[in-house]
Amino acid sequence: MIFEMGILSARKVGVLLALFWMGALCYFWLPNHIPDFLDLRSKSSVRSRHDVLPRLDNSGPVANQIRMQQLNLSSGHNVTGVIHVCITSDGNTLGGMVALINSIVRNTKHHVKFHLVTDEDSVNHLGDWIKSSPLREIDYEVKGFPESWVSGKIRIRGGRLELGSPLNYARYYLPRLFPNLKEKIVFIDDDCIVQGDIMELYNTEIKGGDLAAFSEDCKGMNKRLSRLANVYAEFLDFKNKHVQERNISPTACSFNTGVFVTDLANWHKENITGQLEYWMELNTREEVYGNEQGGGGSQPPMMLVFYNRISPIDSMWHVRFLGWTSGTSYSKSFISHAKLLHWNGKFKPWGRVAQHSDVWDRYFLSDPSGKFKPIRRG
Ligand SMILES: *[C@@H]1O[C@H](CO)[C@@H](O)[C@H](O)[C@H]1NC(C)=O
Ligand SMILES: *[C@@H]1O[C@H](CO)[C@@H](O)[C@H](O)[C@H]1NC(C)=O
Ligand SMILES: *[C@@H]1O[C@H](CO)[C@@H](O)[C@H](O)[C@H]1NC(C)=O
Known about the structure:
By secondary structure, the protein is an alpha/beta fold. It has helices spanning 2-29, 34-37, 60-70, 94-106, 123-131, 174-177, 198-202, 223-226, 241-245, 264-269, 272-285, 299-305, 332-337, 357-361; strands at 83-88, 112-119, 139-145, 184-188, 192-194, 212-216, 255-263, 310-312, 340-342. The protein has one domain: Alpha-Beta Complex (Spore Coat Polysaccharide Biosynthesis Protein SpsA, Chain A), CATH 3.90.550. It has 14 helices and nine strands. Helix 4 (94-106) links the parallel strand 1 (83-88) and strand 2. Helix 11 (272-285) crosses helix 12. The chain crosses the membrane at residues 12-30. Belongs to the glycosyltransferase 8 family.
């Protein structure tokens, strides 16, 4: 009798083990097939010049001509002049910003002007870092973000408190931070690396009536990722009457606010900053954002303001969710074809465990002050 029981439970254990392995296989196998779901049209144009920094010429007739052309840029036309890129980062993650800048300049021949924003205490740190590195030749400006602009307007209910960092909201204030900029701009989160020519992203078309280009989180995603937070209902409280008045479909696809292309003249004209502040402030008094499972922070007001007015970004130009798991969810070959990688989520490429952090390491430039150090084993 005892012997029989032993055999039975051994069988049960065997069945459980088999089920576990099947589950694990599905989990790891599926994501490697993401390329099948995505658009690989521009595969062959991926190039990287890891050893050449572009030479920038800021003076003379050519530069003047570029400046003239720049005055006539609008969202409908492709660039012939300067590409404007904005990156924001708080003092703790400046290493992310530096690696991202380096990845952009090493993969383009075009003139990029960087508009960098960090907390007021970190402006000098960032400046010293850039000046003591091969990036000293880039065209850039650094602004300290006045935290008073958002103080009293941020409220995080539970969840990830780091999402309440004031710098997360700097993206709401682009025209106020850069009042002289009236043209197109690309915004990129500091946990990204660019492997393609940034000009392609800058030339993303913003269709008539749309306010910006973003990547939506439903289309072209594989099953495992798409069952994660990806509809408006996960980010907003549809019981709130102000939310209801916006006539938003709760099942509308959400989008990632970490990478976008927009036109600052239009942003100003449409009072986007004012609208974002309105929702932000309202959320301190009433529940607007729901349970914030999906991330909360700076995302929900953007979803309210940009609803139904976004153009798409090429899927290879925003390969994301790298920070959602510590394990590898993309194959090496897929990653090598991606134009932009985004480690959104908990596992940052400068942390102890992150997938494909070797790609990020290629672009990181060490901090002369020694304050920022990626955590690496051994
Ligand atoms: C701006 O560019 C458009 C399209 O290239 C052209 O039609 C227009 O004349 C230009 N405007 C100015 C002021 O140069
Ligand atoms: C802009 O450039 C993209 C590729 O970078 C191209 O597909 C598109 O047709 C161009 N648009 C115009 C208006 O030239
Ligand atoms: C911008 O929008 C906010 C919120 O809706 C509003 O209070 C403010 O008056 C608007 N500003 C302008 C200049 O229209």
